[in-house]
Design a protein that fits this description.
The structure is a homodimer. In chain A, a hairpin with a 7-residue loop joins strand 2 and strand 3 (108-112). Chain A is built from 6 helices and 3 strands. The N and C termini of chain A lie far apart (64 Å). By secondary structure, the first copy, chain A, is mainly alpha-helical. Chain A has a domain at 18-136: Orthogonal Bundle (Arc Repressor Mutant, subunit A), CATH 1.10.10. The longest helix of chain A has 29 residues, at 18-46. The first copy, chain A, binds a DNA duplex through helix 4.
Amino acid sequence: MSPKPKSRRVLPEPPLTEEQQETWLAYMRVKLRLNYEMNRQLQTDSGLSLADYDVLNALADCPGGRMQVGVLAARIAWERSRLSHHLQRMTARGLVERSPSEQDGRATDAVLTAAGRAELDAATPGHAALVARMFFAGLDPALLPALRTALEQVHEQVLAEGTLPRPVSQHRLPGLYPGS
Amino acid sequence: MSPKPKSRRVLPEPPLTEEQQETWLAYMRVKLRLNYEMNRQLQTDSGLSLADYDVLNALADCPGGRMQVGVLAARIAWERSRLSHHLQRMTARGLVERSPSEQDGRATDAVLTAAGRAELDAATPGHAALVARMFFAGLDPALLPALRTALEQVHEQVLAEGTLPRPVSQHRLPGLYPGS
DNA sequence: TCGGCTTAGGTGACATGTCACGTAACTTCC
DNA sequence: GGAAGTTACGTGACATGTCACCTAAGCCGA
């Protein structure tokens, strides 16, 4: 099964150095535990899941609390069908609404309702407190800038290499609020 | 709605500094996208989900590929019932087996099968390559040590503050293999 | 050795996520 | 202006995760 002599070496060499492996393991461990804790805290304190929070948060971060469904999906790195189902459930709970897009007849906008914003606002302090306590409280402040830069570099890399479309920066621009 | 004068100040102060917020946002963005990409890559290239991979990986990292179910759950930060269901499915696929624990009559061990180990081995290079490409390729090597230390500090903090039991270090100790 | 307490895991009903596919609105090019 | 290709979302079937609760084994003091 190896009649292809050396057209391109198989490269069984480990693609990660020792230190990279350790870093990756630490990342995964943090991710797993933090996910668990965030979910739990949000659920018990606010009746929101982390998924709900991601959606509400992304919407709230947008002028008018309104975003096209596909754009929102790209922003939070969800499958579009997942978002579609989830919006259905959140609509039933009164947290968001759907309304046909003005720009594109095919598209739908997800819109934050007043109730949705209220729930988000109610949930945010507890969530932020958890982040402060779980993530930053044990972190040497001297490492913060490096951590930030590193994460931003990784983010950029994932965007560049990833299969998912780069999120549209339908973002709030400082001092530029197009209004409703 | 503010008839409770100042029994305890409401503390609307933001618990996070500007730089902490940015760091947190970067972390969340990385987490969302990387999760998406890892899932996708594993699924299409190996027919394993990221969840499968987490389980197999944890087991393989243990002498004999055998671990008590609850210990495994703590290790990968899953609800125990989730793991129970998942093991059932993985058992049906022949990736793992269950066998009653020798030490504790109540407990069950999850055991990696030969097929499970083979699948894991087959999936690992692709997964590692993805990590190398998405996570490390864009990272300034000078930042690596700081990133690692920061993540390890955060991990320690989550363990200390979290609600989940600290994972038992039923880990492979260098030079100390109790054997099967 | 009996009864209550705790801890192990499992289970069934239901919430959530994924995949494959469907329909409709654009876009293009003739 | 209309067929072909693309893009936007929705949907139904099924895979996965969560919650509340169950049974059994170990534990412990009366």
